[in-house]
């Protein structure tokens, strides 16, 4: 994004297989060409980021890191190194933190994020420790870096004692990272963001937990519209970092959707989604099946309408019969092969259900084929044509106590295949 307004960034901040070096290099080129200006390297399962944060990267990894920073410079994308020291922070670790950051500076990092997320919470004393550690590192490194802090209390509606203590220790121009009122936030209000920034005396950067699909969301491939957000949000935050999925090429669809929303927050999100998906050859069948998110966990509305149409309406049959691979780029198809296989299994079950619905008196062979196909379609943790079961952490994250439960966190229901198969069996029983 150019001109005034919040900057756009992407963060590799998920739990799961980190991107490869080649995948990151390709991502940086794409980000730079599509208005993104920051990339944050923060893969949770990279041991040198989190579990073994004090240790320097091995020599071959350092070489790749330097290549990454140089590629970011060439693409116009500031590469930020994140360090996550909170799992085992101890008195005196300020020296180790500063040493780790200095090494990133030597390798060409343009920014540093100190991430205290997803560790046991606490009150003001823990905030003083975390904020003081960042302030000490900034003083020791003394380099022209873009600094930011992801606090332990990162998903909430208002400041906590912990956050106020962090804010008091860290220089006022250092942004604090926030995921909205929840870890995965169905809605984010501009007023809440502005009040949080004012209350803490720091700019706020939004960590957008879409399209990330780790943990209990792992079975869902997020290829649907950008999530609903307050149109005033771009005026209330300093920037946004989009948390990625494991799937580097598939990420480009939600990244483009979010870019469009931040450029024009009043535009029609669904129209933008159709436009972006249609620009990728062959992607539409899979994207329709992967439209679901916590805010809208059901199947694609148009596919649902086709499934509920009067007998003789062949639109769903034609859609499913055309398959999900025609025209899809080979590299994207390879990345998404498990999802394509499951699409075909779900489609097979729905076509079997349509066969039964089209015959007033189905044979035992037809009923047996339906039962076998439906059983095969349900043998998967991957969620297509609506979400059967997934866990989204729609909960705040703050303080030493477990966050309060939110019923929206658990999505459990029937997808389009289940609905159609049940309807076919009910019709056959009459």
Task: Pick out its properties.
430 residues, alpha/beta, TIM Barrel, Methane Monooxygenase Hydroxylase, Chain G, domain 1, eight-stranded parallel beta sheet, two-stranded antiparallel sheet, 15 helices, 10 strands
Largest sheet descriptor: 8 strands, parallel
Distance between the termini: 59 Å
Secondary structure class reads alpha/beta
State the helicity in percent bands.
Answer: 40-55%
The low-confidence parts are: none
At the first level of CATH, the class of the largest domain is Alpha Beta
Number of beta-strand segments: 10
Number of domains: 2
Strand order of the largest sheet: 5-4-3-2-1-8-7-6
Please tally the helical runs, counting DSSP H or I stretches of 4 or more residues.
15
What is the CATH homologous superfamily assignment of the largest domain?
A: Glycosidases
Oligomeric state of the chains? Answer: single chain
Mean pLDDT: 95
Rounded to an integer in angstroms, the radius of gyration calculated over CA atoms is 24 Å
Give me the strand/helix succession. Answer: EHEHEHEHEHEHEEHHHHHHHHEEH
Task: Give the CA-based shape.
Answer: elongated
């Amino acid at each position: 994004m150019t001109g005034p307004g919040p900057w756009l960034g992407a963060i590799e901040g998920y739990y799961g297989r980190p991107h490869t070096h080649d995948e990151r290099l390709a991502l940086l080129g794409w980000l730079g060409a599509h208005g993104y200006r920051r990339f944050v390297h923060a893969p949770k399962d990279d041991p040198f980021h989190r579990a073994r944060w004090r240790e320097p990267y091995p020599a071959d990894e350092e070489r790749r890191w330097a290549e990454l920073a140089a590629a970011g410079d060439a693409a116009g994308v500031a590469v930020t190194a994140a360090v996550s020291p909170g799992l085992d922070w101890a008195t005196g670790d300020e020296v180790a933190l500063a040493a780790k950051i200095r090494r990133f500076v030597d390798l060409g990092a343009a920014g540093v994020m100190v991430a205290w997320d997803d560790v046991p919470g606490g009150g003001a004393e823990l905030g003083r420790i975390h904020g003081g550690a960042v302030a000490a590192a900034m003083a020791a490194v003394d380099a022209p870096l873009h600094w930011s802090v992801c606090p332990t209390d990162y998903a909430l509606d208002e400041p906590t004692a912990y956050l106020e203590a962090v804010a008091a220790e860290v220089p006022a121009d250092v942004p604090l990272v926030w995921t909205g009122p929840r870890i995965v936030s169905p809605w984010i209000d501009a007023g809440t963001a502005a009040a949080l920034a004012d209350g803490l005396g720091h700019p706020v950067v939004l960590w957008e937990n879409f399209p990330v699909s780790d943990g209990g969301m792992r079975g869902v491939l997020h290829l649907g519209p950008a999530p609903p957000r307050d149109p005033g949000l771009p005026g209330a935050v300093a920037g946004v970092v989009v948390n990625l999925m494991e799937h580097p090429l598939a990420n480009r669809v939600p990244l483009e959707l979010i870019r469009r929303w931040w450029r024009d927050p009043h535009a029609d999100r669904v129209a933008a989604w159709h436009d972006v998906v249609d620009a990728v050859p062959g992607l539409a069948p899979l994207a329709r099946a992967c439209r679901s998110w916590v805010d809208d966990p059901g199947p694609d509305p148009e596919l649902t309408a086709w499934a509920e149409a009067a007998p003789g309406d062949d639109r769903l049959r034609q859609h499913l019969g055309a398959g999900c691979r025609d025209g899809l780029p080979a590299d994207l198809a390879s990345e998404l092969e498990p999802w394509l296989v499951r699409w075909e299994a779900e489609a097979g079950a729905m076509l079997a259900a349509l066969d039964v619905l089209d015959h007033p008196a189905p044979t035992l062979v037809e009923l047996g084929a339906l039962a076998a196909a439906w059983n095969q379609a349900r043998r998967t943790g991957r969620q297509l044509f609506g979400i059967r079961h997934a866990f989204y952490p729609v909960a705040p994250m703050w303080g030493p106590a477990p966050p309060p439960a939110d019923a929206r966190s658990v999505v459990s229901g029937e997808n389009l295949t289940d609905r159609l198969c049940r309807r076919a069996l009910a019709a056959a029983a009459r």
